[in-house]
Design brief:
single chain, alpha+beta, two-stranded antiparallel sheet, 5 helices, 5 strands, Ferric uptake regulation protein, WH-like_DNA-bd_sf
Length: 157
């Protein structure tokens, strides 16, 4: 993605956040926008500890509690998505930006001989999953709005 498009995307998500905060009656703080921009500059999944360390390295003065509270706001606003990949970390939830992302699924690769230490997360789309979704909708007379699918494994030698 080129720099101009990235700047347009950041402006758009900041507007989404601004409108959400106004609608919900929440304070409009600069820290929230800084955290949002850092998340949308990432190209990978993250957890709260990752984000906190990044903010500290960049000399932003935000507490971990502020990040946790802000994450909850972003989740509710539809700006990020939460995952439970089963990793063994202090903060077991992972997150990813979601405003511009299409529906996708995850293949979680653990390091061999580790206790659920993640080596890699591969995102993928398979059109056959869409067919399964449609079959379930028809069979149960429902409208599926979203789904999450995780495969877990280790790499073969």
């Amino acid at each position: 993605m080129d720099t101009l498009q990235k700047e347009k995307n950041i402006t758009l998500i900041k507007d989404v956040l601004r409108n959400y905060l106004l609608e919900k009656g929440f304070r409009n703080t600069p820290e929230r926008y800084t955290i949002l921009e850092e998340i949308y500059n990432m190209d990978h999944h993250f957890n709260v500890d990752d984000l906190y360390l990044l903010m500290m390295q960049k000399k932003y003065h935000v507490s971990k509690a502020t990040i946790y509270n802000t994450i909850e706001i972003f989740l509710d606003a539809g700006l990020i998505r939460k995952h439970q990949f089963g990793e063994k970390t202090l903060t077991s939830s992972s997150y990813e930006k979601s405003y511009f992302d299409k529906q996708h699924d995850h293949l979680v690769i653990y390091k061999k001989d580790s206790d659920k230490e993640i080596q890699e997360i591969i995102e993928f789309c398979d059109p056959r999953i869409q067919g399964i979704k449609e079959a379930i909708e028809e069979a149960f007379n429902v409208k599926i709005n979203s789904h999450s699918l995780y495969f877990y494994g280790t790499k073969n030698d």
